[in-house]
Sequence to fold (502 residues):
Amino acid sequence: MSGADWFQALSHPQENGIVIFVSGFLLALGLYHLLLYFQNKISSYLYYALYVLLVLIYTFHRAKHFILADLVAGYRTEIEFLYDPIKWIYSTVYMFFAFSFVDLEEYYPKFTKSLRLFLKTGLGFLAVLIVIAIILKNKLILDKAYNFVFLPVIFVLSLYILYLIFRSKSPVKYYLLIGAGSYLLITTYSHYLTYTGRPFRVLFYGATAFEMILFALGLGYKQKLINEEKNLWQELVIKEYEKNLMIKENLTKKLGEEVTHKMKQIDALKREKHIAEQKKLALSYSKQILKLRLQAVQSQMNPHFLFNALNAIKNFIIKNDQKKAVIYLSKFAKLIRIVLEQAKLSETTLQEELELIQLYVDVENIRFNNDIDFKIEIDSDVNSHKVKVPPMIFQALIENAIWHGLAPKKGDKKLRMKISQDYPYVKVVIEDNGIGREKAHEIREQKNMTLKKESRGIKITEERLAVYTQAYKNKFKIHFIDLYDKQNRPSGTRVEIFIPVA
Fold:
């Protein structure tokens, strides 16, 4: 076959099987990435699958002896009526794919947000044009709108977006730039040949296949980078968790050694019958045991909080939210350092405790997009630098307010801590405007959730307060109060804690 014969054969892609091959390729590629989206929930896969399938709809019915073309043979008129809307839609979906693929919003957030709104408005305008065209039974309005309004605008936007992508630091940008650039140049040349009477449509199908292959390779490479970063973060989290477990084991071992040492001292004094010294040592031992019990109960509290915080980092990693994961890990590391320092103490000042709670809420608030309005109010007659409390004594109560009261709520989310003097106590009020304990209980029952985690945190808090206040004349008090609005509907929860100071 001569070169002219080869050229003549390639000039008719509908007859030589190229359209069938490209259509089948697009069908397989689109369905495969649609399944990947349902498996990984990554938006890039969804946009890519929709883009491929829409291009398929635009091309497959032209193929002869292709099963899909045969199935829609009776609807060819309707499909041709929607030619321009299909091109409009797949061009818009292509834009959304480009944003998601290179994470353009991370580099140009304001521009990307505005462009998303513009594209969605364009789709709304297209829907109105389709209705008008159907009523008038004339697709000319769709043809004019696409060729003289949408196409020039999207062409200019595409060039500008390719420029922005080129300037970005995305590791996968060259897959998009090469694929889109090649498609743009080749299809433009193909349209030029068609309009000058020398149609060579095989260029269009070749450019389409080449672009789809490059995008698929880019998605695969991006997923590889994501998996590598996830593995790195998981290794860091595991190392931090193992380090915390080692610290806890060392603390427990040290406490055991101290108790054994005191017991040996008492036994020695008993044998020597030093009654006065024995009583003095017994008193010292009683105080030591009280301190050790408080630290032992506190050591239960730290893993409880750490486990929840590590789960938060894991969720950011799973969602591929790298920016939040880095911010969260930074604040979490600072919080861990303070918690581990206070693990050695049996008490701390109220001021230091409130600063720790503020940092803890800041860490939790990252997971709620900073939707929680948290404030601490201290009466002027309370000297927070002198009042002593057990470390992290309010953390479990704050955690319950956030996760069981405010998390399920829609709208404004407020959390307040109010500290006042109520001699001989310091009164600490923790109040939220969440859904209330009854509604939270119903939600957990509907989801078959256990209450062990919540009750365990409150039980540990009460036990720590009980141990801490053994040396005081007055014991601690803690009250849980359900709040209701004027219509007698649940409007939040108030917890009142009374800690003796004398």
